[in-house]
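Input record (one chain):
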Amino acid sequence: MKHIELSADRKKYEDILLSIETVTDIHRKHWAVKRSRSQNEVTIRYILIHMLRKHIGWKLTHIAHRVGLGDHSSAIHAFRKIEDWMGSPKMYRKELELIDAIEENYGKRCSDAISETV
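The corresponding structure, as predicted from the sequence alone:
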């Protein structure tokens, strides 16, 4: 049973990465692992951390390891930053529109996967 859950998590992880790549048109090698500190790539990493926590439910320590952050405190910062954006929608309109577009793409991927299994 544990193997099935891990396999499902891997699929969700890959779908999240593909959704971000599709919407941003930036390959994951530029943002999926902590290498760059450009504002655009940092924003994308924040969104990745948010989605991994929201859709897979991974602990922040696991997310930090997966994303190549030093420790979970960086993942906590990213997660709180997204909450700040959501609390100030006028100020962070561009970032929230990006999150919405990625969430929509991810939702389509999930529904397509469900319809393929039926």
